[in-house]
């Protein structure tokens, strides 16, 4: 019956549905691993050292910006090339992206290695001075593998461009499983060490990604295999024209996701990062169900827009909004049971601040709604409004977040993001409707 139903469905939709089913399975494995790893890691370290690790990871997350939007720019350009079966152009894009990222992150690591000699991580992370040597060594090793990861994970971007997000997720899950095995072995054969933990969680995914990359480019992605002879730095302009816009938009996400932990650590101490991060991670795991549904549509919207299949786009957006209503109901129920569920998950050592589950729920629901229209806008490359909003938010988020934290405690960390997300959800809805009705002019169509 299911096959019969699919046979009557648009091929683009069939591909999306198959990927959604595959992603649900793989994401379920990924979430399960993440949920188990939190108490496992907490038992291996302690609340304070766990908070230090989370904050340090957040800081290094900033450096993902150094790809200057190459990943997302490549995703759109590659989808466009594949839509017209121009495999040579696709290989040129891929080869150039690999070469560019390798050059960029090699330079970034060299600069960081020099700067790391002078950085006092105990001051930045608000930790005891006797951790100076350990944190400095940890930062150097972990940052190296962070740089490597942004190069090796390019194969996942290629899978997304081919409208195969389930395969992209499979590559990520493989690294997660290997990391989980590594952490489990650490708990059995070593005592709590930030250094061992950092190496395990950053090196193993990179090694796994390198293995998968060699495998897929010699098998199912043979027609897209990169080559040094196909590197054309002159095509970077085509990728970066759109990619730089995505790059600046990413800054907003980095500022929000990666500075919140630092703000909490500075205002309330690193131990308070743990309850915030664990609560956010729990609710984000629930919201990820919706992101699984939305993910295949970015590149599908690119393909449909190029082929002027606006009818399919409108139907898909309407279906996604129905799924969002279901998410609202489910998330509200979960927020009412949050204390009990999180207590069963990590035990009583972590005390969740009052109202934090509700505030996180509101933010994630607004973000989920935004992701529907943003998938369309990103897929079509109409992102200038997002760009301007991102720049404004980059300047105002930190001072507003600090103000609300001082007024309301830890829960205030999200108030700034909630206000921004609510306003943008209205703006993006208006822009989507203007474009789909062919009434977008000026900035609304850029």
Principal-axes geometry comes out as globular
Helix/strand order, N-terminal first: HHHHHHHHHHHHHHHHHH
How far apart, in Å, are the first and last alpha carbons?
43 Å
Biggest sheet statistics:
none
> Tally of extended strands?
0
- As a percent range, the share of helical residues equals over 70%
* Computed Rg: 22 Å
Strand residue content: under 5%
| Unreliable residue runs | 1-8
Number of domains: 1
Judged by helices, strands and strand pairing, the structural class is mainly alpha
Number of helices: 18
If you average the pLDDT, what whole number results?
85
List keywords for this structure.
disordered N terminus, mainly alpha, single chain, 446 residues
Explain the overall architecture.
The chain has 446 residues and is an all-alpha fold. It has one domain (9-445). 79% of the residues lie in helices and 0% in strands. The protein is built from 18 helices and no strands. Helix 4 (70-83) packs parallel to helix 8, helix 7 packs parallel to helix 10 and helix 16 (356-380) runs parallel beside helix 18. Mean pLDDT is 85; it is low at 1-8.
């Amino acid at each position: 019956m299911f096959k019969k139903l699919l046979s009557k469905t648009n091929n683009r939709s069939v591909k999306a549905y198959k990927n959604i089913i595959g992603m649900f399975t793989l994401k379920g494995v990924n979430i399960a691993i993440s949920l188990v790893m939190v108490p496992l890691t907490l038992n291996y370290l302690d609340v304070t050292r766990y908070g230090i690790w989370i904050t340090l990871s957040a800081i290094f997350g900033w450096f993902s910006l150094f790809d200057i939007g190459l990943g997302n720019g490549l995703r759109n350009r590659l989808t466009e090339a594949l839509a017209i079966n121009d495999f040579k152009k696709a290989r040129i894009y891929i080869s150039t992206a690999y070469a560019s990222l390798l050059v960029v992150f090699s330079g970034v690591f060299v600069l960081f290695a020099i700067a790391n000699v002078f950085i006092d991580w105990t001051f930045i992370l608000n930790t005891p001075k006797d951790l100076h040597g350990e944190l400095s060594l940890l930062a150097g090793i972990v940052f190296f593998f962070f740089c490597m990861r942004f190069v090796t994970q390019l194969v996942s971007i290629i899978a997304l461009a081919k409208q195969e997000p389930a395969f992209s997720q499979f590559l990520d899950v493989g690294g997660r499983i290997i990391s989980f095995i590594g952490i489990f072995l650490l708990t059995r054969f070593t005592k709590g060490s930030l250094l061992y933990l950092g190496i395990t969680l950053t090196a193993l995914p990179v090694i796994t990604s390198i293995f998968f990359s060699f495998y897929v480019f010699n098998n199912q992605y043979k027609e897209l295999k990169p080559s040094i002879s196909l590197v054309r730095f002159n095509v970077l302009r085509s990728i970066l024209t759109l990619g730089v816009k995505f790059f600046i938009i990413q800054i907003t996400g980095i500022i929000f996701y990666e500075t919140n932990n630092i703000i909490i650590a500075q205002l309330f101490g690193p131990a308070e990062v743990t309850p915030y991060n664990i609560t956010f991670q729990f609710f984000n795991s629930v919201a990820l169900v919706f992101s699984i549904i939305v993910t295949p549509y970015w590149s599908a919207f690119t393909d449909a827009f190029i082929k002027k299949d606006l009818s399919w786009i409108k139907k898909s957006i309407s279906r996604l909004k129905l799924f969002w209503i279901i998410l609202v109901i489910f998330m509200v129920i979960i927020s009412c049971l949050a204390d009990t569920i999180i207590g069963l998950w990590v035990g009583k050592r972590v005390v969740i601040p009052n109202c934090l589950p509700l505030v996180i729920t509101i933010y994630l629901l607004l973000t989920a709604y935004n992701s529907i229209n943003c998938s369309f806008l990103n897929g079509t490359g109409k992102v200038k409004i997002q760009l301007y909003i991102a720049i404004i938010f980059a300047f105002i988020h930190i001072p507003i977040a600090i103000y609300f934290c001082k007024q309301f405690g830890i829960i205030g960390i999200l108030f700034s993001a909630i206000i921004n997300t609510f306003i943008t959800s209205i703006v993006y809805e208006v822009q989507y409707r203007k474009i789909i009705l062919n009434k977008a002019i000026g900035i609304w169509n850029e």
